[in-house]
Amino acid sequence: MATLRDIKRRIVGVKNTQKITKAMKMVATAKLRRAQQKIISARPYAGKISEMLLHLVSEEDIASNYLLKPRDVSNLCVVVVTADRGLCGAFNTNIIKEAVRHINEETQTGEVKAKLVTVGKKATDYFSRRNYEVIAKNVGLFSSLQINSALQIYNEVLTRFNKEEFDKVVVIYNQFVSMVQQKITVEQVLPIPIKTNSKEVKSDSENYIFEPDQKSILNYLLPKQLKSQFWKFLLESNAAELGARMTAMDNATTNAQELIRSLNITYNKERQASITKEILEIVSGANALKASS
User: Which is the catalytic residue, given 88, 95, 141, 239?
Assistant: First the structure.
């Protein structure tokens, strides 16, 4: 049975842990506001480029442009985006589970081989230690997230795609929904998925005048669309990670408070039992002295 000193020591330890979790929650909350503002600002840009491409792309472009033309998939590239650190609930675990599920589903027939590009220390450590072909590792990007980080991944993926090292690229990441909610998303980035069968888009495109010409604008916008997508993936994951960490640290702080309350009750019970025992010993001793005299 734990002594009063052990219980007191544990209460002090839990209180110190509670201070840490509370501080981490406050830091995550402060960073989340900035990250949330960045992703809110980036979404319209990425969305507008995708909308413009709908007006520019034709069936002929999809059949001829190497960034749009579908390929028979024999090599699949999976970009897995996790965090560099833990203490954010099931954020990393859920992404890794979804990546493993997706890879197994795509490669179960044996006709498709999967190659991985990992973003974040958690994904890098997990897949590097197991029987997966990791062709590029990106660690430490989220400590000071910059557009160059997205361009680094973009250049790596696009160069290998041009060399036909793989035929399809998907990104698995956590999409930021709200401060307390994240959504695991699997999104194809190459070949760029564009639907051109919308009658509204075709009718609207007839009202545009393109300068210098439609194909030149398309070739100019496609790389920009890819860069904005990779930048958006990192921003989404960063904001989602901070939201998950804020929630996890808030829960940890609340749980620590409950544990402290429970330990205080146990401490008081043990203290009362100890005092009662001492009183009984004193009374028993006094009665024994009276009886002997």
Answer: 88
196 assigned to some structural domain = yes
CA of 97: how far to CAs of 119, 129, 160, in Å? Answer: 15, 15, 26
Domain with residue 130: its CATH number is 3.40.1380.10
Residue 16 located in a structural domain? no
Number of domains in the chain: 1
Residue 193 DSSP code = -
The DSSP call for residue 185 is E
Q: Which domain holds residue 158?
A: 23-248
Tens-level pLDDT at each residue, the chain (293 residues): 568 888 888 889 988 998 998 999 888 888 888 888 888 888 888 778 877 777 777 677 676 777 888 888 888 999 999 998 888 888 899 999 999 999 988 888 888 888 999 998 999 999 988 888 888 888 888 888 888 888 989 888 898 888 888 888 999 999 888 877 888 999 888 888 876 554 444 445 456 666 777 777 877 888 888 888 898 889 888 988 998 889 889 899 999 999 999 888 888 888 888 888 778 878 777 777 777 76
**φ, ψ (nearest 5 deg) of residue 244:** -65, -40
Q: Is 88 a catalytic residue?
A: yes
Is the omega angle on the peptide bond into residue 191 within 30 degrees of 0, that is, cis? yes
Does 177 reside within a domain? yes
- Domain assignment present for residue 162? The answer is yes
